Amino acid sequence: MDRLLAVPRTTEPAFREQIYDLLPPVIVHQLRRDTAARVELFSLVRSFEHCRHLAPGNFLASALETLVGDHPTAADVIEALTDAGLHQPSERR
After folding, report:
1. Distance between CA 68 and CA 64 in Å, rounded?
2. DSSP state of 89
3. pLDDT for residue 92 is more than 50
4. What is the per-residue pLDDT across 18-77, written as a single tens digit (0 to 9) for each?
5. Distance from the Cα of residue 87 to its chain's centroid
6. If DSSP states are collapsed to H, E and C, what string results for 7-69?
């Protein structure tokens, strides 16, 4: 992320719009969702890689199970965390 931000003009909204115009529409559609939340959550997950010793994916998975465990997208996220090696499901689950 920091490297992308270092590219000249990427901090300019008009320049980013030019980039988006050249991306596949399905990607841009996803990007247009709540941008602030997207950036915050992206940063959160990226930080997991630097803090693996704290098992942050386990905490996120637990939070999702507690707060929205009955929603299928929560299960999808937990599965993605597991696939990425960021979550170790407990044997009780």
Report:
1. 5
2. -
3. no
4. 988 888 888 777 777 777 887 888 888 888 888 889 999 999 999 999 999 899 999 999
5. 14
6. CCCCCCHHHHHHHHHCCCHHHHHHHCCCHHHHHHHHHHHHHHHHCHHHCHHHHHHHHHHHHHC
Instruction: Report the predicted TM-score, pTM, of the whole model to 2 decimal places.
Output: 0.64
- The residue to which tokens 């965390």 are assigned: 81
| Radius of gyration (C-alpha) of the chain in whole angstroms | 16
Inter-residue contact 27 to 19 (CB < 8 Å): no
- Note whether 44 and 57 are within 8 A (CB): no
CA distance 65 to 63: 5
pLDDT at position 1 is: 62
The answer to whether the CB of 4 falls within 8 A of the CB of 10 is: yes
Q: Has residue 7 got a pLDDT over 90?
A: no
